[in-house]
Amino acid sequence: MNKKAICVLWLFTGVITARAQTPVKDGNFTLALPAHYGQLKWNAEGFKVVQSSAKPNGAEVGIRANDGSGQFTLLGFLFLFPEQAPMTSEKCRDGVLEPAKKSNPTIQIAATTEMARSDGPPVALVSYVGQGKDGKLVYSVRGFLAMGDICGDLEIYGDDVNVIKDPNLKKVWESYRFDPNYTPQFNDVSLYAEILYQNHMYQAAAPVFEQALTKLKDDKDKDQLMWQRVTTDQAGMAYGLAGNLPKARAIFEAAVAKDPEYPMYYYNLACADAGEKKLADARNHLQQAFARKANVIRGETMPDPTKDDSFLPYRDNKEFWTFVESLR
Predict the structure, then answer these.
(1) pLDDT of 219 over the 70 cut
(2) Is the torsion defined by CA of 89, 95, 98, 100 positive or negative?
């Protein structure tokens, strides 16, 4: 895996990001907010995530998934709904569906039912049909779970009425649960931050990556050092992309003090130096980085500084560029 380090342009291709910590394992989907109790979960074998979303205020996370046949699409959201608190599953359903029906008057409700749960709030289940943007009929089954000020919304839809009758999809609803006592873990927080990052909401992502670092020490199943390095890198890069170079530099300098053998911290500092035209400092940090190249994370390789936009503006500086070329 290859990574371009950060600098003025802060280009990043990714090496081992929080996205590798998928919210799906063996068909088991989970959604959690970074700073709020509660976890939404269900099982949908054969569905694969194709899109993720998150709000910069930490109040909503969502995923879109397609089944293997392309016949059905799944949408899952967990979000705060404080204006309607205390929430019930029915209030969540009505609060979401009423605006949807106003925006799409073709929606016709076929049935509403309640599925009792002994281990959490009941599911307010609704099936309906309406016209999509292309004028074709779309069949949907949607389930809502809510408690306190938080709401879960799971929808499965397609252009086939079997979305309502398919026995495999019925299993999804049987597995659908909300655990109100769940405490967000490192995976939840870092994934939320990574979704923000991938959607270019860097200013919002940066502090959430820092929040994830506080969760890491409690996760005994993680390779602590590896994820410490990865998440610190992500936090620094997010601050840099948000234009907060002093904060990014402070993160990497603090990281060097705690973990002086990881080369990418020095490389990222060199990029920041180059962005500020401090070539002597950039050279020093590059030298420190490549002296530690044996300590990259498993699967990671050192960037090629001759191809890095951080240093390319200084190709005409013969002394500096000769040094940069010597690092390859």
Answers:
(1) no
(2) negative
